[in-house]
Amino acid sequence: MSSLAELETRPTELRIPSNVLGVVAVLVLLAVFVLMGRLLQGPSFVSQVVLVNPTHYDFNVALTNGRPDDVILLGVAQPMQTTTVNEVIDQGNTWDFTMSRAGVTTGVLRVSRSTLQAHHWQVVIPASFATTLYVHGQPPPS
Predict the structure, then answer these.
(1) Could you tell me what percent of the chain has a pLDDT over 70?
(2) If 124 and its partner were Cys, which of 2, 39, 52, 54 is the partner (CB 3.0–4.6 Å)?
(3) Concatenated DSSP letters for 17-71?
């Protein structure tokens, strides 16, 4: 008999059954697809935003979430009318509505999402925006 010190040890090869490798590969692919699905998911929308314009001027209305590179042109708020814009991209917690006319920015309304919801997604253009146009040499249309 030989002593324990004289015994030769050989490393054993670790063998992973092929079905385990297949299951791991499937799980990794599934995780990649889930992650890609979230990355490729489009933006969420608000069903409508209502622009109330009590002035005698029409206004171009643009919308951002506070970042100047994310501008959306909502449309034109017609004078003395209510304009409904359907399917508006959700801007998150802060919505900045910029009103302009003929190259003059008349003002920006910063509204929180919670305020918009409380007012049923209705935005009223302030009369002071019309005053800004008048000061810049744009008389009210007749």
Answers:
(1) 85
(2) 52
(3) -HHHHHHHHHHHHHHHHHHHHHHHPPPPEEEEEEEEE-SSS-EEEEEESS-TTS-
